[in-house]
Amino acid sequence: MDRRRFLIATGGFAAASLTGIGCRGSGGGNTLKIVSSMPRTGSARGQTDTIANGIKMAIDEYGGQMAGMKIDYQDWDDADASSQSWTPELETANAQKAINDPDVMAYIGPYNSGAAKVSMPLLNEAGLLQVSAAVTHTGLTKVDPGGDPNEPGIYRPTGKITFCRVCPADDVQGPLAADFARDELKAKKVFILDDKELYGQGVAGLFSRRAKALGLQILGHESINVRQNEFNALMATVKGTNPDVVYFGGTTQSKGGQIAKDMRNAGLSCPLIVPDGCYELAFITSAGEENLKNCYVTMGGIDASLLKGPGAEFVRKYQEKFGGKEPEAYAVYGYEAAKVVLESILKVGKKDRAAIVETCVGTKDFDKGALGKWSFDANGDITLQNMTISRVEGGRFKPVKTIDKA
After folding, report:
1. Residues 209, 161: one domain?
2. Which residues contact 50 (CB under 8 A, 6 or more apart)?
3. pTM of the full structure
4. Which of 118, 112, 117 is CA-nearest to residue 167?
5. Residue 215 in contact with residue 180, Cβ under 8 Å?
6. What pLDDT digit, counting tens, does each position of 309-350 carry?
7. Do the bridges between strand 129-132 and strand 104-108 make them parallel or antiparallel, or are there none, so unpaired?
């Protein structure tokens, strides 16, 4: 979903290494804490509201207590009002606050891949479990042949895995989007844009490499300046290359909606494909539905409308609990992240960070959530490797294709 500066975190890393001493083992008292860190300010809030709701629903299923202890869920913001987006400073502060509180047993988040790059090494050094419902940058958990050679080791200073995610990574989403462009949209020539951020550049690079392997012609690849208000000149240039498809690697917050608007302003009528950083209602609002008639939005995972069995039951209960509102795409993944965390804590039966990490990372054949049966692999990635491709109709996302990499 930017799923985004690492030098800033260096000071925080050192501080956490010092202040975390004495806070890395077992907590005392009768309360265990689970915290989440996501943008709760800005346009991402619509999506993160539903993720937080999913977490709360999971906790409610245990009656708000476990192993004789009250579960205290704390919903933390890693975004500020001025930027309307996550900041390295706030993500670092959240990670350090979690590390320093011995009652915190798990950190659910973040929402953005760049933010994960900041908090992961801090939480890893502290031995605190981290599970994300939404970050998809490949290099956070495994080697990306076209990416940073220091990944993922740079995020694991202890050499151990303490981070897991319950959504597929971009090495599924990016290449399968290129397959869709060729096979379904019959594209032969593509123009690629990205937002010059970790998630956007990463997924755009994966799309590009797969497109080249498929024999598609890459007409150009440009990084936008997200501080610009509009991209009309760029779209005129793109139009002049006569692409069959435009691919944008980025998010709603990094001007995905403006890209869609300016394509139409320039008379560029070819399909636009965007990744799950735009799979949120805020993207539709930002772009205007009239500018999304030929737009395809990919999501690493399954759209809520397609869930069956326990997934469909989750959707029903969500609507019942929250006044008929439909969950956004990653609500069920917030629920799933909380469920695997809570089941791991239940198995350990006490506040022991190391044991909880080991139990969660070792999860196999998990079937107590809403996604079906799955395991974490050796990298901490979920074994479910599927993708949904949707169009916008009637102000909502309508799935047109699902793909299972397995």
Report:
1. no
2. 318, 327, 328, 330, 331, 334
3. 0.88
4. 112
5. no
6. 999 999 999 999 999 999 999 999 999 999 999 999 999 999
7. parallel
